[in-house]
């Protein structure tokens, strides 16, 4: 398990193969069992597997931000993943933003354990929240009132093997 965790990378290019529904459900179940403050579960999750809906949002983004429409930028915000997972937090619930981060990390590692790649995207959530042309796409996600989109996760079979990125272990101090 540790070895598998150390191998995880963010994946920005995917094959067309749709992960099977039972795998996605199991991955989400792992996420929902994440540690979260007071077990308040101040999150909502939406799963999008409709290629047309994803493509529609991607095209709006390309039109509004043409300078981000080419590779590699587009793969950092709207990669070609077959599944998009949207995570919103209950803005009334303290710690819910942190809970959403932990939820996203758990989903990412559960997916990796099943041979699936993910990309956690803060930028995409930001675009949905701020680009007026994406407002109806955000509304279609049907989050409850008081919930704010925090993260979007792309999920699918990796079409690349990214290099491991260096880490700075001097940030750890033993006292
Ligand atoms: C909260 C959060 C937001 C992120 N947002 C983006 C993003 O918008 N676009 C992107 O390409 N990567 C995004 N990433 C992925 C990071 O860039 C990536 O995890 C980091 O560079 C380390 O690379 P690795 O995941 O391959 O180890 C995000 C990661 C986290 C945890």
Structural features, described:
With 175 residues, the chain is an alpha+beta fold. The chain has a single domain, classed as 3-Layer(aba) Sandwich (NADH Oxidase). The chain is built from seven helices and four strands, in the order ααβααβαβααβ. It has a four-stranded antiparallel beta sheet with strand order 1-2-4-3, sandwiched between helices. The two termini are 28 Å apart. The site of flavin mononucleotide (FMN) has 10 residues, from strand 3 and helix 6.
Strand order of the largest sheet: 1-2-4-3
Major sheet attributes: 4 strands, antiparallel
Shape: globular
Helix content: 40-55%
How many structural domains can be distinguished in the coordinates?
1
**Which fold name corresponds to the CATH topology?**
NADH Oxidase
How many individual β-strands?
4
Q: Specify the oligomeric state.
A: single chain
Order of helices and strands: HHEHHEHEHHE
Level-1 CATH class name: Alpha Beta
What is the first-to-last residue Cα distance?
Answer: 28 Å
**Mean pLDDT figure:** 97
CATH superfamily, called what? NADH Oxidase
Name every ligand kind in the structure: flavin mononucleotide
Q: What are the low-pLDDT stretches, counting only 5+ consecutive residues below 50?
A: none
| Helix vs. strand class | alpha+beta
| CATH architecture label | 3-Layer(aba) Sandwich
Helices and strands, with pairings:
Layout lengths: L1 H6 L13 H12 L10 E6 L2 H14 L8 H5 L5 E8 L5 H18 L3 E5 H9 L4 H6 L6 E10 L19
